[in-house]
Amino acid sequence: MNMEQILPVPSPVSSYWLSQPHKFSDLRSTAELPTQCEVAIIGSGMAGITTAYHLFHHEQPPSSVVILEARELCSGATARNGGHSKVKLSTLASQVSKLGPNGVDELQKFVQGVIASLKQVAEDEELDCELEIRRSFDVQLDDEDAASFKDTYQVCRDAGHTWTKDVSFALPRYLEQVTSIKGAKAAETVPCCSLWPYKFVTQLLERLVARYPEQLNVQTTTPVVEVSVLADGINAITTPRGVMKAEKIVFATNAYTAGLLPQFKDIIVPVRGMASHIVPQVPVHPHLSHTYNITFSSGQAADYLNPRPDGSIVVGGGGSMFKSDRPSWFNNSDDSTRFSSEVETYWENYMQRVFLGWENSEAEVEKVWTGIMGSTPDGWPHIGRVPGQKRQWVLAGFNGGGMSFIPIGAKAVAKMVAGDSDFVDVKDEFGIPKIFATSTERLQKAFAETK
Ligand SMILES: Cc1cc2nc3c(=O)[nH]c(=O)nc-3n(C[C@H](O)[C@H](O)[C@H](O)COP(=O)(O)OP(=O)(O)OC[C@H]3O[C@@H](n4cnc5c(N)ncnc54)[C@H](O)[C@@H]3O)c2cc1C
C-alpha cells in the first residue's frame, strides 16, 4: 500500500444530515466482492451515486456497475455540508477579471442548470429530501467588501453581462429589515436550491437498486487501497476483501483522490471544515425563507446558513476560530474528531447574536460536526479522463461547492464513460466551464504554483 495513502478514516463523527440513517447505509449487495464488472465507481457521495444514475439512463447502459465505498454509504462531505447549491455573487464578481464576462456567464448558467437538474431528478424519482428552490442572500458586514461587489456588479450590469440578470441587491436603507442580519452593510440575492443531500443521494441509490437488481452491486465498508492497470488494459482494484477487475473506473473520491491517483498529490488536498445544527427552543416567526452566506469581515471565508423547514438551522463555517491553526484543517482528512471546544464556542448564541428576531429564541446548539472537502489550488474541480490513463475518469476536488457542480458534472462523466470519450467531447452538450477540465497541463501548472 502507498505509504502516503489518504483513506477515509473509520468512525466519522455524526452530523445532523446523518441523524436518519438510510436502511442501505451498510449495504453489500453480495456477500463476496464481485470479481469483475464493466464500470466500477469508487465513492458513494453525490458524485458517485449521480454518476451511476446517469450511466443507467444512458442509451447504452453498462451491463454491470459496482459501487465501492470505504465506509458507510454516503458518509463523506455530502453528508456533512451546508445543503445548498448556489454560486455566490462574491465568486462571480471575483472571476470577472480572470474568466472574462463569457466565462462568468458560463459558470452561472452551469450552476443554474445544476439547480434545475437537482429539482428534476428529485421530482422524477420522488425523492423525499426537503428540496426547495429558494433565493439565497450573500450578506456583507464589511463596508469595503460591500462597495467592491457593488462596483463590479454595476460595471458588468452596464456592460450587459448576462450573469447580472439574476442577481438582486437589497435596498440599502432596509438591509437589516430585509435580511434580518444585524449590522448588514450590503446584501444580494441569487437563485439557490436547498436540500437534504444525504437523503437525495441514498434514496436515489435505493431507486437504482430496485430498478437494476442484476446490473448494480453496492459494496460498502470496502476501501480501495490500490488501482493498477493490467497488461491487457483492464483495471485491477485492490481492496482488503480481494481484487476486482473493472473495464472502466470512475473516481468519485473527492478529498481522497490523491490517495489512489498520485498525479493529484498536492492538487486535491483534504481540508477539514465545521458545521452545526442550531434549534430554537421558542418558535421564531416568520420562518427564514432564504439560505445565507455571511461575510463578517473582509478577506474572511463566509459562514453558510440553511434554515430547515422545521424552524431549526444548519450553520457552517466559523473559519475565524481555527484558520490560524493550519494543521487542524489543511491537509487534514480526520472527520472522526471535532474541533476543540474552544473553537466550537463560536456556535453558542450564534443565532441570537447575528439575527434579528432570534434574541429570545433560546436557540441551542444541537450538534456540531466536521467534514472533509477536496481543495484545489485554482479553486475548481477536476472533471474528465484521468490524465495519463485510458479507461479511468474522475470528478473530484469540489472545494466548498460540490452541490453546485456535481449533478451535471456527473451526467457529463457518465456520457464520457459510456462513449469512451473526453471532457472536450461533451463540454458543449453539458455547458461545463472549461476550467473544470482535468489535464496533464493543468496538473503541471497547479503543481508548479504550489511549489
Ligand atoms: C462542512 C462542509 C460544508 C459544505 N457546504 C457546502 C454547501 O453548502 N454547498 C456545496 O455546494 N458544497 C458544500 N460542501 C462541499 C460538498 O459537500 C462537497 O463538494 C461534495 O459533497 C462532494 O461530493 P463527492 O461525492 O465528490 O464527495 P464525498 O461526499 O466526500 O464522497 C466521496 C466518497 O468516496 C469515498 N472514498 C474515498 N476514497 C475512497 C477509497 N479509497 N475507497 C473507497 N471509497 C472511498 C468516501 O468515503 C466518500 O464516501 C461542504 C463540505 C463540507 C465538508
From TrEMBL:
SUPFAM superfamilies: FAD/NAD(P)-binding domain (SSF51905). Pfam families: DAO. This is FAD dependent oxidoreductase. GO terms for cellular component: cytoplasm. Residues 39-416 form the FAD dependent oxidoreductase domain.
